[in-house]
Amino acid sequence: MAIVRAPRSLSRIVELPPSLAGKGRQAFVLLSAMLAAFVDELFPGMTVRGAYQFRVTRNSELVVDEDEVENLASALRSELVGRGYRPAVRLEIAHDCPKPIVRTLLQNFELGENAVYYIDGPVNLNRVIQVNDLVQRPELKYPPFTPRNPLEDENVFGTVARGDVLLHHPFDSFSGVLELLKQASTDPDVLAIKQTLYRTGKDSAIVEALVQAARNGKDVTVVVELRARFDEDANLGVADRLQEAGVQVVYGVVGFKTHAKMLLIVRREGRRLRRYVHLGTGNYHSGTARAYTDLSLITADPDIGNDVNLLFQQLSGLSTLDPAQAPAAIAVHPAQRDPQAHRTRDPRLATAGRPGRIIAKMNALNEPQVVQALYAASQAGVQIDLIVRGACTLRPGIPGVSDNIRVRSIIGRFLEHSRVYWFGNDGEPELFGASADWLERNLLRRVETCFPIRDPALAERVQREALLNYLADNTNAWELGADGRYRQRAPTEGEAPYTAQQVLLESL
């Protein structure tokens, strides 16, 4: 028995030459299929009785005791070296592989029978995504679109000083956020820039703007979260690049990941200082901003500016993360340790005989206290709509428990990533954007922000585009039943098809 490893230097998808594909056609073959077809050539003089694909998934969690290490960056570099040798957690293997070979692999990787997944086809379908870029068939792809850029050719500081700016990505270009930072890096009146970085792209324009700002004499502080899973190595490189340029780089709070998305710019205007803030539901990553739906709020609101400044002081070690100092304008975790605090008003109103209403959009929901709070709200008569793209441990529609809760997931062209929370509040609604989902890891082990959309026109726009629009979707929506199964929504008789993402694209 021998193991043949597919060379990392070769593409996993190979395009066949025209002579084999046929005139005017494109054809592709998986590298693994080629290896299996010609594997006998690797063993001259021997008879190959069979060849079977398999793939091993290892535990990628990096374990670093922050209380015991002086230099987190150095400790993570050491851990990354051994990531490829971490304990195995799963074996995927061809469905027709003989049992003795499977048992041998399980023994060598120290896995039990329940860790085996038999695959009828390629063991790694992620490779097939390359075909989209290789195939020249526009009719098979989504049509290209040009996002709006409301801040193009604008003095961003002047625009934001007149009123808050809201960007709905990818329908609004992420270049507006980049333009804010670029103008800050060269503006002689800008004194300081502070930013959090969780995930950034390779050769990030955001990082280049921060480097340029430091070279131009600005006081630049960046909180780099080194422990963003699978981006640890890239984030270490970002931290090194920033430090070489004179940026003050800090790694956040011991014991918590810094997941908040914040940018703070301090600018001298006449005889006073004004704070400009960007808060987002997504990462500072121009690539994902073209494929994920997210919200960006750019504001000069003094309350929000003060709170973000306080949070940066806490993150940079200039003050402790004290629950008694929880900011007033934005909710902060773990400073605000009660995940139910801002979800109790509508249940109280409903109990008092007034209408209660909650609409929330997120990536996933599993925090037990939040689930229980939503059940309690439903039992009090609050009507609740949840738009949860991924995992959801709440069961809607259970008599006497969750009769008033509906859950749907939207799967479409763009990955739904924005976190938006709307509370009816007896006719005085409140709407928030957030960096956090209602997950245990977000609410209890990360530093997150939940920020209000205070401008009534912008709040109405967010409710219309990011919530009501998705509740109307009858094409890409999957509704969760009380039995835990999802069923795809389809237009009823006489109902026109409605696709939320397409409606937003058509508004461009």
Structure report:
- With 508 residues, the protein is of the alpha/beta class.
- It has three domains: 13-140, no CATH class; 156-329, Endonuclease, Chain A, CATH 3.30.870.10; 341-506, Endonuclease Chain A (Endonuclease, Chain A).
- The chain is 28% helix and 23% strand.
- The chain is built from 15 helices and 23 strands.
- Strands 10, 14, 15, 16, 17, 19, 20, 21, 22 and 23 form a ten-stranded mixed beta sheet that branches. Strands 6, 7, 8, 9, 11, 12, 13 and 18 form an eight-stranded mixed beta sheet that branches.
- The chain is globular and about 85 Å long.
- Mean pLDDT is 86; it is low at 333-353.
Write the layout of secondary structure elements.
Layout: E1 13-15, H1 18-21, E2 28-30, H2 31-37, E3 54-58, H3 72-81, E4 88-94, H4 99-109, E5 116-119, H5 130-134, H6 156-162, E6 165-169, H7 175-186, E7 190-197, H8 205-215, E8 219-224, H9 232-244, E9 248-250, E10 257-258, E11 262-269, E12 272-280, E13 292-299, H10 302-315, E14 331-333, H11 345-351, E15 357-362, H12 368-379, E16 383-388, E17 405-410, E18 415-416, E19 419-423, E20 430-434, H13 440-445, E21 446-452, H14 456-471, E22 477-480, E23 486-488, H15 500-506
Parallel strand pairs: 4-5, 7-8, 8-9, 10-21, 13-18, 15-16, 16-17
Antiparallel strand pairs: 1-2, 3-4, 6-13, 7-11, 11-12, 12-13, 14-21, 15-19, 17-22, 19-20, 20-21, 22-23
